Write the structure tokens for this entry.
Amino acid sequence: MKIYLYLSLLLFFSLPLISQDKEKVEALKKLGRDSLIQLALKKLNDPAFDPNVYDRVIVEADGNTNTIRVRFELSVVFKKGCYYDAVSVSLVGGGTGKSIEGDCDEPAYYKPSATIQKNIDFVFNAINKENDVGNIPDKKLSDDEKMEITEKGSYYYVEFSSWSTYSHYKIDKSNGKIYDAGHKHYARDEDERKNIEIIK
């Protein structure tokens, strides 16, 4: 009996909060993408963070959880050093989160070096020369795609993932040839994404 009373009280007090969050989400959505990004930067309030370094900025409203979130991400992660490869700021619900690439106690925000950028360009040029693993026009990935590059002795190991697929292959450093390629499809439910609205 106590459990039912507790659940009833919890539901009674939670419903107004859920309704308020939903109203906040709808009000914020009307401000538009650029304003929401500026609000996220203000909430993050970190002068060390340069949003221009992160090539992917996604503003999303989740109808399941009544949240609105701004995500600053790297579409291409070069696995060298230790840094934040993604920063997420919730404007309604939740807080700020950071994803760390590498292993260290004090990661910094990402700042690409000329050498790393040159290596990334080499990988893209190799991919675009061969039809075996696809083509990436203008070296830009779509919003649900991500590439991770690991430098090895004589090759780059590339992992490419999207909502429904995963590919991996090696690129020879000396000639840009692609080899040892593998590919698989994920069995994912499209309903998982239906309640997430991307604000353009």
Notes: DSSP finds four helices and eleven strands in the chain. The mean pLDDT is 86. The longest strand covers residues 83-92. Helices lie at 2-29, 33-44, 114-129, 191-194.
